[in-house]
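Build the 3D complex.
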Amino acid sequence: MELKLIKIPDHYNYIAAFLTLACNLNCSYCINRYGTEGYVKKRLTGEEWVRGLNRIISRDDLPLTLQGGEPSLHKDFIYLINNLKPELHIDILTNLQFDVEEFIKKVDPKRLRRNAPYASIRVSYHPEQMELAPLVEKVLRMQDAGFSIGIWGVLHPSQEDIVRKAQEDCIKRGIDFRFKEFLGEHEGVMYGTFKYEGACSKTFTETVLCKTTELIMGSDGSVYKCHSDLYEGREPVGNIIDPAFELQDIYRVCDAYGRCNPCDIKVKTNRFQQFGHTSVDIKDAPGGFKVKSGY
Ligand code: SF4
Ligand code: SF4
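Done.
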C-alpha cells in the first residue's frame, strides 16, 4: 500500500534518518552517548526505510541526511541510496570505514550531488580512533570517482592541535576539511553555545512545552521530538512507516527538560544565515533564554 505523503514544514531545517546508532569506532566524546544509551536497537530493513522515506516531500535545499552511529553498518545501506526517490536529495555522515571500492562500483556519484555550499558526503575524522593518511587516500579515491566529499574534524580541547594540523595537510592535498564545534563536557567544562542555560546539565528535570524544526527518525523508523528522546529511547511521537503518521508542527509536553542533548539546544545559524537559531523552541524554560559558551 502506498503511504500518504508527508510535506516537511517550510521552517524545518533538518531531516535525519539514524539508520543505526551502532558504530565501528568508539570515540570517547561521542555525542550519541551523551544520555543513558537507552536507545532502540531494532532496525528497519532497507525496503521499509525506502517506503517510509519516499513519503517525504522536502525542498531542494533540505536533503535527507543518512547518519548514525555509522550508517554504512546497515546491511541495506547501498540499496537505500539507490532506491530513494530522486527528488529527495541525500547527504551522508560517515566515518568512511566502509569499502569505498564497492561503494564506487554500486553508487552513481550524481545521485549524491546537489547545489550546496558543502559536500554531500561528510566524513568525520577522529584522531583517537583513526589514522589520517589512509582516510585521506580513501577520500581522494572517492573524490576522483566524482563524489562530493569532505572531512570534518571535531575541535575537541584534547586534540585541537592535531585536528588543525590535519586541516592543513588535507587542504594541501585538495580536500575540503572543516571544523565542527565540540559539544559536551570535558574536564568539568561544558563546551558549546546553548540557548537555554542548564538544559543539558542532567542535574534536574522539569516539564516544559517544546517544538522542533527537525524530523528525527530512529533506526526502527520512530519519529522523536529531539535527539535526546532518540538517544534515551523515550516515547516517540510516531513512526515513518505507520500509514496513520502525520507530521504535527506543534508544541509538545516534555518532562525531561534538563536532560536535553547539546545538538538540540546549541545556538547556530539558520539557513537564512541568521544567528540565534536552535533546533527546538522551548516555552517558559526554567533558567530562561541565555546564551552560554564554554569557550
Ligand atoms: S565515529 Fe562518530 S558515531 Fe562513531 S563513535 Fe565516533 S563520534 Fe560516535
Ligand atoms: S525539552 Fe529538551 S528533552 Fe524535552 S523535547 Fe525539548 S529538547 Fe528534548
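The chain has one domain: 6-188+214-248.
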